[in-house]
Amino acid sequence: MKRLFDLTGKIALVTGAGRGLGQAIAVGLAEAGADAALVTNRTPAEETKRRIESLGRQAMALTADVADRSRLPELVERTVERFGRIDILVNNAGIIRRTPAAEHSYADWQEVLDVNLNSVFVLSQLAGRRMIEQGAGKIINIASMLSFQGGINVPGYTASKHAVAGLTKALATEWAPKGIQVNAIAPGYMSTDNTEALRADENRSRQILERIPAGRWGADTDLVGPAVFLASAASDYMNGHVLCVDGGWMVR
Ligand code: NAP
């Protein structure tokens, strides 16, 4: 059974790996045996790197603004240069801009789509080409409850996360015959910087908590098991699935 989830010898590229969900996922993949290339923008990757190395695994820090398309090829190239291959891509980097639709600036809309969606397409394409050559690979996109629902005051974010779910299915269909599984994780309401504004709003925070059957906000570590599952041989017959990890939010 252990072998099914074992990532020993696998190479992962994780975006947004310096903090929040991306950090927990990167360390979790390393706990399962993977070495990792860690992409960060404003947060230094040092802490994540240290945690991975203390597990006896290797980690390489890469800095890039994923909204800048010209920076993306080097992320895949440097990963392959250093580790010789790329087995797992986790498209985790994401931003949210909270303003009502009527006032939502085009600049915010554009920035959210560049980070949350366009980078996912381009990085998946770049890593996907390598995986096609290798005949195997795992791509995990981080979706959201707002891949299914409308949300409030976050039109760009909702549009981007619906599109991430659609892109996951499109890539999964094309690449399944090539031995590549593309799936997504849709986290529920997790305690990270992304949801700080919601948790600071007493009313919203209470309303959200009341709707979560599990009775608590999610922790970054709640994504580790699902991420290892989708990165490992245990999910080899899963293609294009959007896995909700939400304490039951979606089924209430
Ligand atoms: P977070 O704590 O706000 O972290 C955002 C992450 O994205 C950081 O690692 C950040 O890196 C990275 N990032 C943002 N803009 C970037 C850019 N231009 N280039 C490179 N990296 C960039 O958020 P989180 O909660 O961990 O969110 C991670 C993912 O989960 C996002 O896709 C988010 O939409 C999704 N999600 C979160 C929740 C939740 O409840 N928290 C729910 C559903 C989905 P730097 O710090 O290095 O800039």
Automatic annotation (TrEMBL):
<keyword id="KW-0560">Oxidoreductase</keyword>
<dbReference type="GO" id="GO:0008206">
    <property type="term" value="P:bile acid metabolic process"/>
</dbReference>
<dbReference type="Pfam" id="PF00106">
    <property type="entry name" value="adh_short"/>
</dbReference>
<dbReference type="GO" id="GO:0008678">
    <property type="term" value="F:2-deoxy-D-gluconate 3-dehydrogenase activity"/>
</dbReference>
<dbReference type="InterPro" id="IPR036291">
    <property type="entry name" value="NAD(P)-bd_dom_sf"/>
</dbReference>
<dbReference type="InterPro" id="IPR002347">
    <property type="entry name" value="SDR_fam"/>
</dbReference>
<comment type="similarity">
    <text>Belongs to the short-chain dehydrogenases/reductases (SDR) family.</text>
</comment>
<feature type="domain" description="Ketoreductase">
    <location>
        <begin position="10"/>
        <end position="188"/>
    </location>
</feature>
<dbReference type="InterPro" id="IPR020904">
    <property type="entry name" value="Sc_DH/Rdtase_CS"/>
</dbReference>
<dbReference type="GO" id="GO:0047001">
    <property type="term" value="F:2-dehydro-3-deoxy-D-gluconate 5-dehydrogenase activity"/>
</dbReference>
<dbReference type="InterPro" id="IPR057326">
    <property type="entry name" value="KR_dom"/>
</dbReference>
<dbReference type="GO" id="GO:0051287">
    <property type="term" value="F:NAD binding"/>
</dbReference>
<dbReference type="InterPro" id="IPR011286">
    <property type="entry name" value="2-deoxy-D-gluc_3_DH"/>
</dbReference>
<protein>
    <submittedName>
        <fullName>2-dehydro-3-deoxy-D-gluconate 5-dehydrogenase KduD</fullName>
        <ecNumber>1.1.1.127</ecNumber>
    </submittedName>
</protein>
